[in-house]
Structure formats: C-alpha cells, structure tokens
C-alpha cells in the first residue's frame, strides 16, 4: 500500500503536468467577425465574415474575398445595420446574411467605417 507521502507526490506531479499543459499550450484566438465594406449603391454597406471562415481562403485582407469571388465562388456574409438604442446611442448589429458573387469582387474593401446619420 502507498504511504500518504507517495500519494501527495503523485498528486503534485499530476498537478504540475496539468498546469504545464495548460500554460505552455498555445491558446487559440477566439473566432471573431472581420469587417469589410461593400460598395454597392450610393453608400458603402458594412459586411462581416467570421475570421476562421476568412482564413480558409488564400490571400490576405480583402484580397481573400475578392480573389474567391473572382474565381467564381459564392460567399455568404453578414450585412450589418445601424440601429438606434433606447438611450439614443447607435449600435452596429447583424441584419441579415447576403450572398456575394463574382460581380461583387471589385466592390469589397478591407475595414469598415461606421457612418452615423445626421440627426
């Protein structure tokens, strides 16, 4: 039978190994929305795509989306809308999913600017 000392040593070794695995293992970045502007019509529309989905496409920045569309792929992205909250401030919220096609390839730019309405 193991003595209490050996039991404590075994528990300590397990805790050290667990802690080392947790601390030394690279942490994955959380999946987040990456924003772009779609320049259809009079004013640009804010669109977003999840980072993990975007990273599956070759290239960098907006070229990932533009190149995929130019190759004939259809992409589904979120279109965002500006909504006024009860306290009078504005919030950019996902409005609906839209499809982008090859005609949209030249209309997508990286980053997005929020344009507040003139009240």
UniProtKB/TrEMBL annotation:
Q: Could you name the domain of life of the organism this protein comes from?
A: Bacteria
Please identify the protein, giving its name as recorded. Uncharacterized protein
Instruction: Report the source organism.
Output: Bradyrhizobium denitrificans
């Amino acid at each position: 039978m193991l003595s209490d000392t050996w039991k404590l040593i075994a528990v300590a070794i397990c805790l050290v190994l667990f802690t080392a695995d947790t601390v030394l293992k690279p942490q994955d970045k959380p999946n987040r929305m990456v924003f772009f502007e779609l320049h259809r019509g009079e004013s640009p529309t804010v669109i977003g795509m999840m980072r993990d989905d975007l990273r599956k496409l070759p290239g960098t920045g907006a070229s990932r989306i533009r190149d995929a569309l130019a190759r004939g792929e259809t992409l589904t992205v979120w279109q965002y809308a500006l909504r006024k909250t009860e306290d009078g401030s504005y919030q950019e919220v996902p409005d609906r999913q839209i499809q982008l096609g090859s005609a949209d390839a030249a209309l997508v730019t990286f980053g997005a600017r929020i344009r507040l309405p003139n009240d």
